[in-house]
Amino acid sequence: MKIAVIGTGYVGLVTGTCLAETGNDVLCIDIDENKVEKMQQGVVPIYEPHLDVLFDRNIKAGRLKFSTSLEEGLEHGDIIFLALPTPEDEDGSADLKYILGVSDDIGKIITDYKVIVDKSTVPVGTSDRVKEAIAKNATVDFDVVSNPEFLREGFAVDDFLKPERIVIGSSSEKATKLMEKLYKPYVRSGNPIIVMDEKSAELTKYASNSFLAAKITFMNEIANFCEKVGADVDKVRIGMGTDSRIGKRFLFPGIGYGGSCFPKDVKALHKSGKDNNYNFKILDAVINVNARQKLALIPKIENHFDNNLKGKRIAVWGLAFKPETDDIREAPALYMIDNLLESGAIITAFDPEAMPNVKRKLGDKIEFSNNMYDTLQKADALVISTEWSIFRTPNFDKMKQLMNSCVIFDGRNLYDVKDVENEGFKYISIGR
Fold it and tell me: How many CB atoms lie under 10 A from the CB of residue 276?
């Protein structure tokens, strides 16, 4: 099938590449000429495990191409995916200016029937607004479909190629059949393609992410309470997770969620509720607790240093909001670093992938190291903020030789408390 993907951000690039991987002829469109030129040369603009292999293979096979021309995209594709940014507005709502702007342009240049697919995460009712924007100038038939993505950063390629489910929001039988044909190769194992109306599909994405954010936040509250009463959140987590109604996933406590989806989507659903005279009280709590949780280690650090952090050298392992990504949007590490810098601490940091992005954001406010152990030179404490695999089995003897003081503040509960204490470290984690 002939596919055009408008926007080559995280969702657009993964979508386009994975659609090409099953034999489709894909043209990706982006207004950034420099970015398009680099992609044409085989340069992947984002870090995502396994994406580079598929990207290179499909470019060489001629199934994946790039352009800056929207007209070329409309001429090429029978199905047009809109994978455009929906940034958080000042009031928490999703800003739809990019999607509606492109939709308006599509209406002016569309010459034959197309299926326009909202792939971006958008508020309920967006498909109607996209239809209106296109219809203002269009002189041919078209359909608008809502097809939310459920891609986890770090696992996006597998999530696309082997989806647990595919949600298609459509009121058009013709468009639905085309979408089912497109996605059939990805559900050969029997996972469902779920067809529903557009508004329900739009809400499904927000509801899913908000529920997972609430689950994480609830466990963080339980962890905080464990510290008050002397319970062990790891034991509580295991006891809860064996209940099939609850499940084991998203029960790991820590220093809050971040990234491009959960923070933005929770706030957008909360704002959408207000716009429709409904107050999501649960989401009020989720937003407030998560904001507080990102700084949960700070009082513990201040207490250890008798509220005097001036001149203290703090090593930070992990800058990305989660492992296997270079995404630092709403990353707890950055909130902690800002707070520590305000208190006069000196920060040296390491992350396997995210350091270039942090350098662009913070410049020379902090020091960066070439590896995890270099950060520990003369460090008064270590803060762990991202659970990268390479941090899970460190050389504690080497760490003791490098650090001024053997203290670890672990925001991701990577280690067994007794094991680390037996290595001669003071170990402060979450809920234990």
Answer: 9
Q: What's the rounded Cα separation, in Å, for the pair 48 and 58? A: 16
| 307 to 292, 299, 350, 380, 431: CA distances (angstroms) | 19, 9, 25, 14, 22
Return the biggest CA–CA distance within the chain: 74
Average pLDDT over residues 90-113: 94
18 catalytic per annotation? no
> How confident is the model over 258-270, as pLDDT tens digits?
998 999 999 999 9
Q: Is the pLDDT of residue 150 over 90?
A: yes
Q: Which residues pair with 116 in a beta bridge?
A: 80, 144
d(CA 421, CA 432): 13
CA geometry: angle 290, 242, 287, nearest 5 deg = 10
pLDDT in tens, 12-48: 999 999 999 999 999 999 999 999 999 999 999 999 9
User: In angstroms, how far is the first alpha carbon of the chain from the final one?
Assistant: 54
Contact 134, 110 (CB under 8 A): yes
For residue 281, the number of C-alpha atoms closer than 13 Å in the C-beta half-sphere is 0
Measured in whole angstroms, how far is the alpha carbon of residue 36 from the centre of its chain? 23
Residue from 26, 24, 45 nearest 34 by CA: 45
Regarding pTM above 0.85, the answer is yes
Residue type, 283: L
Contact 417, 432 (CB under 8 A): yes
- The reported pLDDT for the residue numbered 271 is 94
Residue 310 CA from chain centroid, whole number:
34
Neighbours of 401 (CB within 10 A): 10
* C-alpha distance from residue 33 to each of 29, 46, 70 (Å): 10, 16, 13
| Residue 326 C-alpha from the chain's centroid | 10
For the record, the structure tokens of 256 come out as 């809050």
In 197-311, beta strands by DSSP E: none
Write down the catalytic residue from 28, 226, 261, 406: 261
Which residues, other chains included, contact 228 with Cβ-Cβ below 8 Å and sequence gap of 6+?
none
State the CB neighbour count (10 A cutoff) for residue 295. Answer: 16
Q: Is 209 exposed, middle or buried (0-12, 13-18, 19+ CB in 10 A)?
A: buried
Residue 415 CB contacts under 8 Å (≥ 6 apart), including other chains: 392, 408, 427, 429
